[in-house]
Amino acid sequence: MKYIFGPIQSRRLGSSLGIDLLPYKTCSFDCVYCECGCTTNLTNIRSEFYPTEDVINELADCLMQKPRIDYITFSGSGEPTLHTGIGRIIDYIKDNHPEYRVAVLTNGTLLGDIHVQKEISRADVVIPSIDGATSQSFEKICRPDPSVHVEQTIDGIAAFRRMYKGIMIVEIFIIPGVNDSDAEINALKSACERISPDSIQLNYLARPGCVDWIDIPSEQKLIEIKNRLSPLHVQLIERRELSGESESTMNDDPEEAVMMVVGRRSVTIEDIALTVGTDRNRAVSFVEDLIKRGLIQKTLVGGEVYYSLVKKRI
Asked: Of 148, 247, 249, 314, which residue is the least packed, with the fewest Cβ within 10 Å?
């Protein structure tokens, strides 16, 4: 499949069927921690990057199989709200498959746009990221398109929150030495108070990013930050263990399925097994063959092995 991937086991959303609306790697940010790699098309201009009807048709074929998933998630190779057809695709899901919940993962740069606000308003969950609330941390972590500024982005997220009836979760990616000082946490708390989300999730490096200098915060530091953000509701994202039966929507060609999932982000062997719809031992066999052929590679992060396409590692 070209636009649909997964299900992927997400630390935040459980079993998630992904929709990728953008060519690799199109985004308004070039985040240093991005698991997809460095941005090659830095833009904040909306366009119909892929035909909306093609995406809907592929999604319709996939949902006819009635996959057991927790969410249909707009994510993937870049900022999903850049695609001008996102509203039509969400409407298709809610009108034809209301049994599925919809999540939008966004960097928030376009949430101040009234057209974007209306288009994603039927999503069940919207998760914008605010990784830096000062210009210094925002520029260092997000490396945004020149037209994007921190105050403008926070104002836009707050404006969307005022009209949005669903669940909003603000994600903050903690990078030691960049956005974890007292001044930075105070700025983040002030921004979140203006937005008033349902909750805040503290995230940290769990997969290889674009640079090699990012450290993983200690559990003690995360708890300290959580306490500093009080009384806002804050969650620490924990690594989920896979359980239950694996299910895939694209297991006719296991090798193609493996290449698709590692081509979109760095993944564990458990992620691959779930996506392909097989057990761990068979997934290891697929991966070892692809490594021998020079198509994928492995990287160690935080004591765990992740796999990614060779050509997309920077």
From this structure: 314
Residues 6+ apart with CB under 8 A from 9: 15, 16, 240, 242, 270, 271, 274
Distance from C-alpha of 312 to C-alpha of 238, rounded to nearest angstrom: 27
The domains located in the chain, with CATH, are: 4-236 (3.20.20.70), 254-312 (1.10.10.10)
Which structure tokens are listed for 34? 């991005």
CB of 38 closer than 8 Å to CB of 314: yes
CA distance 60 to 4: 10
> What's the chain's Rg over C-alpha atoms?
19
Contacts of 31 (CB under 8 A, 6+ apart): 107, 131, 141, 142, 143, 173, 209, 210
Question: Which DSSP symbol is given to 208?
Answer: -
Q: What is the model's pTM? A: 0.80
Which tokens is 133 given?
């609330």
Largest CA distance in the chain: 52
